[in-house]
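User: Before I run my own analysis I want an independent prediction to cross-check against. Here's the chain; please return only the structure tokens and, at the end, one sentence I can use as a sanity check.
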Amino acid sequence: MMREENERFEKRKNLICELLEDDLYVPMKEKELAAFMQVPREERDMFREVLRTLVAEGRVQVTAKGKYIKDAGELLTGTFISNARGFGFVEIEGRQEDLYIPEGKTGNAFYMDKVRVRPVRGQRGKRQEAEVVAILEHGMKQIVGTYDHAGNFGFVIPDNGKIGTDVFVPKERSKGAVTGHKVVVELTSYGDDKHRPEGKVVEILGHANDPGVDIMSVVRAYGLPTEFGEKVMNQAQRVPEEVLEQDKNGRMDLRDLQMVTIDGEDAKDLDDAVSLYRDDAGLYHLGVHIADVSNYVQENSALDWEALERGTSVYLVDRVIPMLPHRLSNGICSLNEGVDRLALSCLMTINDKGEVTDYQIAETLIRVDRRMSYTSVKKILADKDEDERQKYGAFVPMFEQMEELAAILRRKRHKRGSIDFDFAESKILLDPNGRPIDIRPYERNVATRIIEDFMLIANETVAQHFFWMELPFIYRTHEKPDPEKIRKLSAFIHNFGYYIKLTGEEVHPKELQKLLDKIADTEEETLISRLTLRSMKQAKYTVDCTGHFGLACQYYCHFTSPIRRYPDLQIHRIIKEQLRGRLKEERIKHYEERLPEVASHSSKMERRADEAERETDKLKKAQYMEERIGEVYEGVISGITQWGIYVELPNTVEGLIHVSALPGDYFYYDENSYEMVGRDTGIAYKLGERIAIRVKSVDRLTRTVDFELYEEEQPEA
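Assistant: Structure tokens:
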């Protein structure tokens, strides 16, 4: 019976295609087609399903007026990103630029839907346009937002500003939510031209003003996990609190080597330790020792699947959502002071030119002598603080050698063209109720740079080793910038008297680094640095070693943080199997099949974490500025669009001066010069320019801050 139905289904598909291909066919709507093909009323549902299938397969398309025609042209599949103003974009994997979907061509696609689109040709010099021809799969199943009660029904106003419509909720499906509640609503209908999306409340997070509810709303919106399942926790409980004797067997014993961890004061998951000494020949012997997490997280265990699913730890403004349970990350896997720990060590011999002349990667047994903080090491090296130097007297010579070696490694990287952006980052301090009380810049100092430099050289060394062994591996890659963006950057900086040398369509990282060196401490530094960063692509995880443009190196991986990043944990397993001689044909095949998905998923989870972190920062920064409305600050113009000027304050808060609020003229955005220009006066606001602003208003829902220009009032004559 089933087979007969399938045959009828396929036959009807072929008949429709034949009809649409006929030269005499006039485009018809579904009802007209059904009548023309004499489809019995009881078979209309099946007929509708046949049409949907043909559209999904890309063999047939539906026009904006709902008429069916034979498909013509290239079809692409991607993710639809809506905009509240009705238009949207489609992100296509592997394609640098998104496709623009004009209003009326979205095919009623919803935010994050997987869609099939047809590019529209003949768009010279503009962003490529396309139209949605089929919705293949809905990406959003739940939405987080604020509930608004309205008699016998309610609406959920989405937190995500890209979703431009409220969700209708019948009263009986509201779960008792009241106006102002933050809720999670499950979509039961995605709406169309005439109807709003509809849903049911599945969870009430609390009132919008309750402490912690704002961050929990972001956590839910991004689908971040909040708890570990029972199986995972049971496995974590079975992990020993101390290193077992049998686990020490066969490892290189480095417990007598002077060794420290250097981290922030509040860090609890210490996954890297460093050691250094200089021999009589003047060679540096650097050890980077990384917690052997893979000893306690076995492949395909519940712990492993959970870690893979999470991909990374997420560091939000008021909490950390860890990749692994605290019992591991803060316990047996943390390189705590004075206790035996299992590690994977990269032991490097480095000369005074920064060249790694010899190295060994080994399974080791270590014992950290001191848990140091960045602040303490900075006091010892930069401030020459006598109390601190006396307190850690036995370690001071090692720290001084570390400073020497880090400087050598940095010079070597700089010489080959490594690009170092030094934008201000911030730490938001909260009171016990989650209210922001201060925003302080993160300090990059001599100690943070030492650890950065040592981790970079270890990651390079490990990646190079496994590349030449031709074994399956996960690399951290960063592609070359898009030639068109580099050409635009080149044309723009020419206005300031700078240039970058292009080789054909490409630029060498050294050219961008030389540019950043030239603009250091100039008025245009912030502006050109930002534009340079925007011209570059995002780094990601891949199984092909295509190099890291930003670091100007051929081989790079993430080896140093297996507690908080899954790719590091994954390559630890490969390293150990290779060291133990177990990477035979069967295991190589296993990794060749597994690693592409691990790399792709880890890249997605990293992007999700970055977005959630940015969102919570924006939220708390908006709350912080809410109490500072009317105050005056000096800031730097950090972005210009057709709707206004973005200004960044020294505390890293960014706000918008809307174009309509710019006084004295009608202003328009000049895309070529990145300027906001007055039509009659010629007054121009430029990226990187310093201006005084007054805080005008804050919108908690959209997490945005509005500024206005501040002009000092002149005293009356």
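Sanity check: The chain has six domains: 2-70, 76-137, 142-210, 233-456, 483-536, 628-709.
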